Amino acid sequence: MGFSVVEARLALEATSGNVERAAELLKAHRRERERAQGGPLVARINAFLRNQQPWSEFFDKFLWPEHLHERIETNLLYYRANYAIICGAIVGISALQQPKLLALLGASIALHYGASEWDGRMPAELNMAPLRLNQRLVIALIGSSLLVNWLDATATVMRVSVLCAGVVLGHASFRARTLNSRWAYFKSSVEKSD
Q1: Taxonomically, which superkingdom (predicted)?
Q2: Which of 51, 61, 126, 182 has the fewest beta carbons under 10 Å from its own?
């Protein structure tokens, strides 16, 4: 569950050895800690951005690819936080240039943030099962797509998407793999096979 031994012992002592109550206590403590730090979404974003590689390494050595598929997979895995930052900057600059995109970006962020923070419970009168996170995110994605269509911004969003994809794939194709990136790719493939 990701709790330290000390936390687990303290929770068991506080609940007189009741494992179920200790687990509930630990989960409640984790939720409270995440809420104090900005919520689970902020915690996930920070954990993702901690994987950022140094920019000097990111721009270090470019070579013509010999094994294109392996190089792209390795670099996409190893530099994913750097790519997210670059794409975020491209989207931010594009949104600042067009107010319509800025409104669209704000509404999309609000939809996705609401979907990730909502606990999924439906009103009692609907008598439906709670929605899982992936279901809520799909609904937010559909809502964002409808906003793009309603604001007639499809062409602009596609241009920004193609620009981001081109920058990321161009770098992933020509950036020579490092020993660290190969090791990260190897670890990831072993974890997937388990």
Answers
A1: Eukaryota
A2: 126
